[in-house]
Amino acid sequence: MTGEQAVPAAEQTLAVTDGRIVGVGVTGPAHMTLDAKGRALLPGFIDCHTHTLWAGDRLAEHLMRLAGASYQDIARAGGGILSTVKAVREASEEQLAASALPRLNALLREGVTNIEVKSGYGLDTESELKMLRAIGRLGEISGIDIHPTFLGAHAIPAGDDADRYLDQVVNEMLPEVAQKELAEAVDIYVENIAFTVEHMRILFEKAATLGLGCRVHAEQFSNMGASEMAANMGAWSCDHLEHTGDAGAAAMGRAGTAAVLLPGAFYFLKETKKPPVALFREHGVPMALATDLNPGSSPVASLLTCIHMAPVFFGLTPDESLLGVTRHAARALGKSAELGTLEAGKLANFCLWDIADPRALTYQLGGLLPEAVYIRGQRHA
User: pTM score > 0.90 for this model?
Assistant: First the structure.
């Protein structure tokens, strides 16, 4: 997988030294060899949008939703994100990391070598920093390459004002996050129950001065113009996007901003409005896939399930689905130079699968796991 197709290349060799790929199709002496004949060697999968770190659960909300309540109804009633905030604030850094580890291990077993994890369930300076420290701890204890994102602007704290809280995020939290190097990027939830595009502009401008990448939850339930502005401001990705229009897709195509599609949330919320995949193709927008693993709207700890869902629900081709968790997911993380394809110079994150054609992963739901998972050249599963 070095180009725009996921079908296997001709039989060849892959050389690894010090955790990086140093050559494809090369021969010579080796300290260790791995015979992968008859199998598929694929880049490690990248889960580029998750909320994997949380405390408590939201089973009660799931039962409400099954009874007919909408995501917005639950949020306005004090549930949703805010119900997880209380549990996260009460948990220790160690407890948060320990609770997330089984979820990470489930993803690792499926061939996920890189995972983005957001904060956003603290909503005050102390708790957001605690979450980011716990996310960093996860990378140390799991062996998976973790990409932390600061999502302080995930929701408006109960009883607070959006403008006042956004000022706290931008001028109090964000400088400390950057100074302590706790995140690679910022994110914000732009929606009619959360923040505005003007809030996003303020956050992104500050993040740019601090050297952080920018991402946005955009157009999940309505079109407020976030994807167009975010792309024009150089965002790495816009995520969800069920209600994106032509202007947003065109701006993303011009900027090379990734569209991160989240079929788990689409499925779990029983949505009917699909992302405009045809528009994204028309404008050349790279389409990534992710689990959106979170306790409320996508408790889906399986990227393989999402690889299967994307063609069935959204009409992606099998190649697009596989590229969505490799090459294009790397773009969503601002890591195209490091991840996503098997090329010299990139990190040696790859998996060995006992399948003749990688597209089988979009066909069979369940029962397929990689024979081996390598992260920076070291076997982890």
Answer: yes
